[in-house]
Write a structure and sequence with these properties.
Blueprint: H1 5-8, E1 14-19, H2 25-39, E2 45-48, H3 57-69, E3 74-79, H4 85-97, E4 102-106, H5 126-140, E5 147-152, H6 163-175, E6 180-185, H7 189-201, E7 208-212, H8 218-227, H9 235-243, H10 248-268, E8 273-277, H11 283-292, H12 300-311
Parallel strand pairs: 1-2, 1-8, 2-3, 3-4, 4-5, 5-6, 6-7, 7-8
Length: 312
C-alpha cells in the first residue's frame, strides 16, 4: 500500500459512504443531516459522485467543501467523458483547493439529455486518466501524493466481452498509479471473492473495497438493475422480496437484513473495506452498522485475531 493510500486506509477494514450532489436547497439540507448522522461512525472517507459528462461539477465541489470542513476525508469522482485536459486540470485544482487529497478516476457515462461528441474527450479509458492525474500532481509540486481510486466490476464490466482482457484493463489502471479499487455494487459475495482472487493472480495487490447498496424499495431495486448493468440479483434475495408482498416496510427490512448478512460475511473473510452506496440517506446504513454490532471504537486488532483463529 502506498503512503498516500494509508491516509484513507489507516484502519482496516475501512468503512466509507458515497453521496451524490443535490440539485435543490432542500436536497442540500437533507444531505448535510445525513452526513452529520453518519459522522458519528468516523468513516474512513466519503466519496462524492460526478454527473454524466460533468453535469454536476459545481455541486460536487460544494459537497467536497462541506464534508472536508467537517474533518472527513473526501474522495470526489472525476471522469474522462466530456472533458479536455485543460478542464480536467481545472477540476483537479478545484478539488485540491477545497481540501480533497484523493480522487476516484472513472471513464464515466455519456450525458443522456444533451449533445455529446466523444471525439472531444481527452481520454477514453480510466487508465489514461490515472496517468494524467499523476503527471498533473507532479507538475503542480503539491508536496503530497493524491490517493487515486478506480472502479472494479466483480461480475464483469457491462461493456467487456472478454473477461481475461477485462482484467488486463484493470491492472493497467493500477500500474498507472491507482492506489485502491472500489467495486460496483453486488449482491453475491461469491462473485466478490472470486474477483478478489483473480486480482491477486494478476498481481493486483492494492486494497479492494466492496461496494454495498441495500435494497430499500422495489422501485429502488429496478433503478439498481438499470444503473448497474450486469449485476446479478440472487434468487434468495428475490424470493425474500416476493414474500414481502409489496409491503414497503417489509421490503426495507429484508434489504437491510440481506445487506447486513453480506457485510458480516465480508468482514469474516478479511475484506479490505466496505463502501456503502447511501443514495444520500442514512437509515439503512445506520441499521446495518447496528446489526453488525459495530461502533466508532470497534476493535480492529481483535477482529483480525478472531478471523485468523476461526480459519486455523
Amino acid at each position: 500500500m502506498s503512503a498516500s493510500s494509508s491516509v484513507l486506509f489507516d484502519r482496516t477494514p475501512s468503512f466509507s459512504f458515497e453521496f451524490f450532489p443535490p440539485k435543490t436547497q432542500e436536497g442540500a439540507d437533507n444531505l448535510v443531516q445525513t452526513i452529520v448522522r453518519l459522522q458519528e461512525f468516523h468513516p474512513s472517507f466519503v466519496s462524492v459522485t460526478y454527473g454524466a459528462g460533468g453535469s454536476s461539477r459545481e455541486f460536487t465541489r460544494a459537497v467536497v467543501q462541506e464534508t472536508q470542513s467537517r474533518g472527513i476525508p473526501t474522495v470526489p469522482h472525476l471522469t474522462c467523458v466530456g472533458h479536455t485536459e485543460a478542464e480536467l486540470a481545472d477540476i483537479l485544482a478545484g478539488y485540491t483547493k477545497a481540501g480533497a487529497r484523493a480522487v476516484l478516476a472513472l471513464r464515466g457515462d455519456p450525458p443522456r439529455n444533451r449533445p455529446y461528441d466523444p471525439t472531444r474527450d481527452a481520454f477514453h479509458h480510466a487508465s489514461e486518466l490515472v496517468r494524467f492525474i499523476r503527471r498533473w500532481e507532479e507538475a503542480q509540486g503539491l508536496g503530497y501524493r493524491l490517493t487515486v481510486g478506480v472502479a472494479g466490476f466483480p461480475e464483469g464490466h457491462p461493456d467487456a466481452r472478454n473477461r481475461l482482457r477485462e482484467m488486463d484493463f484493470l491492472k493497467a489502471k493500477v500500474d498507472e498509479g491507482a492506489d485502491y479499487i472500489c467495486t460496483q455494487l453486488f449482491f453475491d459475495n461469491h462473485a466478490f471473492f472470486d474477483f478478489r482472487d483473480r486480482c491477486r493472480i494478476m498481481g493486483i495487490d492494492c486494497p479492494i473495497i466492496a461496494g454495498i447498496m441495500p435494497v430499500t424499495s422495489i422501485s429502488g431495486l429496478n433503478r439498481m438493475a438499470d444503473l448497474s448493468a450486469g449485476t446479478n440479483f440472487p434468487s434468495r434475495l428475490l424470493k425474500a422480496l416476493l414474500r414481502a408482498g409489496g409491503d414497503k416496510g417489509s421490503v426495507e427490512r429484508i434489504g437491510i437484513n440481506y445487506a447486513s448478512n453480506q457485510c458480516g460475511e465480508l468482514l469474516d473473510a478479511d475484506v479490505d473495506g466496505i463502501h456503502f452506496y447511501t443514495l444520500n440517506k442514512s437509515k439503512a446504513t445506520l441499521e446495518i452498522y447496528r446489526n453488525l454490532g459495530l461502533n466508532s471504537c470497534y476493535d480492529v486488532e481483535r477482529l483480525h485475531m478472531l478471523n485468523h483463529l476461526y480459519k486455523a
